[in-house]
Amino acid sequence: MPYQRIESFSSLKYFLAADRISLGYRSMSVVSVLVDPVWKFQIVLRLVEYLTNCHPSPFGQIVRALLWWRLRSLRIRLGFSIPLNVFGPGLSIAHYGTIVVNKYARIGENCRIHPGVCIGVHRGAVPIIGDNVYFGPGAKVFGRVVVGNDAAIGANAVVTHDVSPNTTVIGAPARTIAEVGSGGLVLCGSVLALEKNFDWTKLGSAEALLTEVR
User: Fold this and answer.
1) 124 lies in which domain range?
2) Of 98, 18, 16, which Cα lies nearest the Cα of 49?
3) Contact 97, 76 (CB under 8 A)
4) What is the pLDDT of residues 71-96, one digit of tens each?
5) At a CB cut-off of 8 Å and minimum separation 6, what does 31 contact?
6) pTM of the prediction?
7) What is the pLDDT of residue 154?
8) Domain assignment of residue 184, yes or no
């Protein structure tokens, strides 16, 4: 599974656009940033990733240090233990609350993640998560696990084995209950960010779902 991270100013703009769309925001409005602390966290996260990856100069590191303290404050306030350079573009955090992600995990595009999720290490190995994966509240994924593209991890599921693409798993230990994945549960911001003047009405139930969650 290809892994993306911010490597330039243009990719920073792309990541922010993809995150914004996946969160259900049609524009980068000041109101949305002020009202939604999760969106504010994601913006600061991406800025720190950009400065870490692209600006090793003394000035860049000074700005990074200032933003790092802001990021740290938001992490504590919102309950997020989310390290840098783990999530691909199109991250959508459903709500503030405890979320723990190991710094060596690799998570693809358009991840939709709810409070109570833990993506952690087991016996020295960490998960690799594909694109368009949905994590329900309280889901846990540990160890040398590969979660395929478009999979859905149900609420409170405990995943310790690979999850096939386009499937839904639930339970502890998790088991497959349907050959239907995350369709309708995520917005593919990483794709839509590349389109000019796309029609929001064609997003249908997914946009309505995200609006309802917030």
Assistant:
1) 9-178
2) 16
3) no
4) 999 999 999 999 999 999 999 999 99
5) none
6) 0.89
7) 94
8) no
Query: In the sheet where 146-147 sits, what is the strand order?
Result: 106-107, 128-129, 146-147
Type of residue at 187: L
Query: Where is mean pLDDT largest: 29-33, 151-155, 187-191, 204-208?
Result: 151-155
What's the one-letter identity of residue 204?
Answer: G
Q: What is the CATH number of the domain that holds 121?
A: 2.160.10.10
pLDDT of residue 59 exceeding 90, the answer is no
Among 26-40, 56-70, 116-130, 170-184, top mean pLDDT goes to 116-130
DSSP 8-state code for residue 148: P
Burial of 148-186, coded b for 16+ CB within 10 Å and e otherwise, reads bbbbbbbeebbbeeebebbbbbbeeebeeeeeebbeebb
Closest by CA to 75, choosing from 99, 109, 46, is 99
pLDDT at 212 over 50: no
Is 208 part of a structural domain of the chain? no
Q: Is 205 a member of any domain?
A: no
Which residues have a Cβ under 8 Å from the Cβ of 132 and sit 6 or more positions away? 108, 109, 110, 111, 149, 150, 181, 182, 186, 188
State both tokens at 51.
Answer: 């400065």
Residue 34 lies in a domain: yes
- Amino acid letter, 150: D
Q: Are strands 106-107 and 158-159 parallel, antiparallel or unpaired?
A: unpaired
Report how many domains make up the chain: 1
